[in-house]
């Protein structure tokens, strides 16, 4: 299995531009998480989906951020317009369990991350 | 106060040393406790997990959870240079698949 796939791996953009980050979860996994990692704040949840449905987006910093999961094999995180303070590493993680799943199999598998720099 | 506190280090030890990493947390509702290892410019990978209080051992790694003190630990025996990484504690409120709350990570260097 290829694991969680994220693209692009690196993104450098200018303030005000739209940024779209992409994630392909592990096949068969029911849950998908978007996290952001910065030196100041560490790793923090932005939003997560169970069975393609957004469950909790309270971690999304503001209206400039949006996320979609149109099907079980693809999710996007969009920032429009981007700002320098959005510079961070964005991780996608997937897990085999859903709302009815048992914990023992619900390891979260992380992708390699997208390193975003907004100038 | 952040929900999960973790000393960022850096921590530098000689090869073969026993390493002790720990986290404290404030919310007694956390039930599931994990340690992730993150190499530079990579995603976190699960190392250990425990449910509620107790110990769990896996090879050179031992995880301990003390819910009464809201304190979790990871011990690494016979540390190797390949253990050099950032170690993140993480915890979760409920069963099933719920989001993780992470500590900020401790950077460990094992010197040969």
Structure commentary:
The complex is a heterodimer of chains A (119) and B (112). Chain A is globular. In chain A, β4 and β5 form a beta hairpin. Chain A has no helices and eleven strands. In chain A, strands 2, 4, 5, 6, 9, 10 and 11 form a seven-stranded mixed β-sheet that branches. In chain A, strands 1-3-8-7 form a four-stranded antiparallel β-sheet, with no helix packed on it. With 119 residues, chain A is mainly β. Chain B is mainly β and 112 residues long. In chain B, the strands form two sheets. In chain B, strands 2, 4, 5, 9, 10 and 11 form a six-stranded mixed β-sheet that branches. A five-stranded antiparallel β-sheet of chain B has the order 1-3-8-7-6, with no helix packed on it. Chain B is globular and about 40 Å long. Chain B is built from no helices and eleven strands. The termini of chain B are far apart. The mean pLDDT of chain B is 92. The chains are: A mainly beta (119), B mainly beta (112). Chain A binds chain B through residues 4, 30-31, 33, 41-45, 48, 50, 56, 91, 93, 95, 97-103, 106-113, 115, and chain B through 32, 41-46, 49, 51, 88, 95-97, 99-105.
Instruction: Briefly note the structural class of the backbone of chain B.
Output: mainly beta
Distance between the terminal alpha carbons of chain B, to the nearest Å? 37 Å
> What is the terminal separation of chain A in angstroms?
36 Å
Largest sheet of chain B: 6 strands, mixed
């Amino acid at each position: 299995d290829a694991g969680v796939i994220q693209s692009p791996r690196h993104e450098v953009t200018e303030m005000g531009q739209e940024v779209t980050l992409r994630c392909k979860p592990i096949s068969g996994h029911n849950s998908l998480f978007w996290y952001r990692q910065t030196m100041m704040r560490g790793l923090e949840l932005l939003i997560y989906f169970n069975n393609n449905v957004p469950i909790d987006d309270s971690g999304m910093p503001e209206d400039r951020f949006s996320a979609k999961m149109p099907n079980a094999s693809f999710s996007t995180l969009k920032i429009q317009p981007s700002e320098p303070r959005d510079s961070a590493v964005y991780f996608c993680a997937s897990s085999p369990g859903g709302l009815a799943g048992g914990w023992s199999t619900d390891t979260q598998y992380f992708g390699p991350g997208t390193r975003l720099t907004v100038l | 106060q952040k929900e999960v506190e973790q000393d960022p280090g850096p921590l530098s030890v000689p090869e073969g040393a026993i390493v002790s990493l720990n986290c404290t947390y404030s919310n007694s509702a956390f039930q599931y406790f994990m340690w992730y290892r993150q190499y530079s410019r990579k995603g976190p990978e699960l190392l250990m997990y425990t449910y509620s209080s107790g110990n769990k051992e896996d090879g050179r790694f031992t995880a301990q959870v003390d819910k009464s003190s809201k304190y979790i630990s990871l011990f690494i025996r016979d540390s190797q240079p390949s253990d050099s990484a950032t170690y993140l504690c993480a915890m979760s409120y409920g069963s099933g698949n719920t989001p993780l709350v992470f500590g900020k990570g401790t950077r460990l260097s094992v010197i040969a």
